[in-house]
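User: Hi! I'm a student and our assignment asks us to look at how structure tokens line up with a sequence. Could you show me two examples?

Assistant: Happy to help. In each example below, the sequence comes first and the structure tokens follow. Example one:
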Amino acid sequence: MNELKIDRLNWQPTWPNEIWITDKRRQEEFKITLKQGDDIEIEFEWDYDYGGRGQERMYLPVKLIKDLLNELGL
């Protein structure tokens, strides 16, 4: 079973504070970055040796996530 690692980065007043939520698997890693005043960043990295390696990243607007949670009654 994978455990989530949560890092709280308090960089104010120079930079916005961030929270990193990381799920590290064998050869894969998911990282969600929550940043003050910014979209939610989801990053996926993989390394399958000769099978290839890479990284993908997507961004979700915070308002979209809030609206979807409200839709579910959460």
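Example two works the same way, sequence first and then tokens:
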Amino acid sequence: MRVHRAIGATFAVAVIAAMSGCAAPRGIDSIGGYVDDASITSKVKSRMVEDKTIDAQAIAVDTANGNVMLSGVAKTTIEKATAESIAIKVRGVKSLQNNIVVKP
């Protein structure tokens, strides 16, 4: 009887340990959400690279749950506004936070 309990307890601990490793990253509801965020980030960056008025290397794009945050440095306010305009038009973007700083 004790052996059966020990095996059962060991199995239960193994199942709980395995399930905890399947959790999605903090702030992401599912792995599908993580993939969507990565796709949004990729689309925003690629559209910035295509636009020759933006220095895409100087601007970082982070996405969490469809909320995009832009950061980095722009040469002009027009470049900052263009980056924001590009990002907000990407499908799946729920909100945008523009933290790009314009060089003085």
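Here is something you could point out in your write-up. The beta strands are 59-64, 67-74, 95-102.
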